[in-house]
Amino acid sequence: MATNGRTTETRERILSAACEVIAETGFEKIRMWMVAERAGVSTALLHYHYKTRDKLFTEAMTHSFANTTVDLERDADSVAPSVILARIVRSLLPMDPELRQDWRLWQELWVRALRDDETQRFAVDLYDQLQEWVSGAVNRGIEAGEFTDTDVAGLSTHILALCDGYGIRLMLSDPKVTSDSALAAVWRAIAAELGISPAFPKV
Fold first, then answer.
1. Which residues form the HTH tetR-type domain (predicted)?
2. Domains identified in the chain and CATH numbers
3. CA 94 distance to own-chain centroid
4. pLDDT above 50 (res 1)
């Protein structure tokens, strides 16, 4: 068990380091030794866990998404569905340095997906997981009677599209779009569809 624990901890450290290095440097420029150095492991150990850069990249993206979902769902049974949905929406925008790092990973994924069929399939699968995550939060609110019944799949797609659009503008430091204005605009669209307050909840 101790060995399994060390292996899990090592993989977590490697994936966290990979997220940082890919976001800072860009996938095309990174080398495995850069990630090994950041993670504090040997290159040989890194290759033992991840044979190729492509494998490391996809695992890093999955790791980033999984960590976000676990963190935001930590108390889903004890807070209002609107709060959970608001947390999710906030996490889908580059609102702080950590989320901007996640966004840089997504941007790297988009670029690779345009040139590589396998990466494209992986990207579509990740979007499916994002949509299921958003849809789950909306369905909980409908079941709890807090949200008006709606086309959940359609609304989830709309939310992701809005967040992608505003997120790109924020990543470009477009002066016409601020974090607050983007968050407010996305939430107003959600609120109108779900029959809830247009004021963004305290999360």
1. 8-68
2. 1-56 (1.10.10.60), 73-203 (1.10.357.10)
3. 10
4. no
